[in-house]
Amino acid sequence: MTARTQRTRLLAACAVAASVSLVLTGCGSSKSSSGSSAGAGTNPSATVGAVTADPTLAALVPADVKSSGKLVVAADASYAPNEFKDEKGNVVGMDVDLADAIAKKLGLTADVQNADFTSIIPGIAAKKYQLGMSSFTDTKEREATVDMVTYFTAGSAIAVKKGNPDKIDPKDLCGKKVAVQTGTTQADEIKDTRNPDCTKAGKPTIPNDGDKFPLQTDVTQSLIAGRDQAMMADSPVIDYALKQTNGQLEKLGDTYDSAPYGVVVDKNSPLTKAVQGAVQSLIADGTYKQILTKWGVAAGAIDKSEINAAKS
């Protein structure tokens, strides 16, 4: 991934026609996030151990945040299993549980709010949110304006319809119709890497620099409906979509370009060190692994949280 510059969030897809049967999410328009039931490999009802405040870490929390008693956390709830809406409309997922645990370590309560992905970093700068936890890839570009606290590792992946009817080569998407979420790492990959390579090779480019959608649910719908031939997203999101679509999709090739996710914090905020300490403490006491296991994403676990550790 080079940047969810945003890595994409791919959640479940809705039924797009009577002939398309998905176990996936509840249907929603492209203007709102869709709900989703948990897929195979997840256990949303699993119990996670109680988290208690760490006085040393709590002492690092800025006075205004401490006095409010809460951490306001932004997440784009269209990217299961990392962040999505359940059948009751509640925002749930790996990032939500981690945000809750981080807040408790700091003696606070997490207030997780659904937000458009592209509005989250500007919202951090405007003090609307204290944290952004929405599968953000840690990149040098992002680190120029915000702090990033690493907490997970994911890569990019490609999905096609079961059986790969268009015989697509994951290393050669030139001329193919590919769906991606707007503003994601995968969208940047098409524009900055794949299409220039297609041009150099004398091949047709991926049309429109990829068909871009505001929500990952819309990306998945487009592939299911046959409007696109492939979709690109973060690896845990692709894996979840495969489980949710009842075998209608398959992963094409291997996961590639693995990179860390980062919690977004305002640049040079004392909260950055507090959050990094909270993540490391959750790793040490086992809570972190419990949360990842609950959502079926333990393969992305890290053993050390770092601040602004992007390699590119």
Automatic annotation (TrEMBL):
Xref: Gene3D superfamilies: Periplasmic binding protein-like II
Solute-binding protein family 3/N-terminal domain: residues covered: 70-299
SUPFAM superfamilies hit by this protein: Periplasmic binding protein-like II
The keyword Signal appears for this protein: yes
Region (Disordered): 190-211
Signal peptide: 1-25
InterPro entries: Solute-binding_3/MltF_N
Keyword Transcription regulation: no
Keywords (A to Z) from UniProt: Signal
Name used for this protein in its record: ABC transporter substrate-binding protein
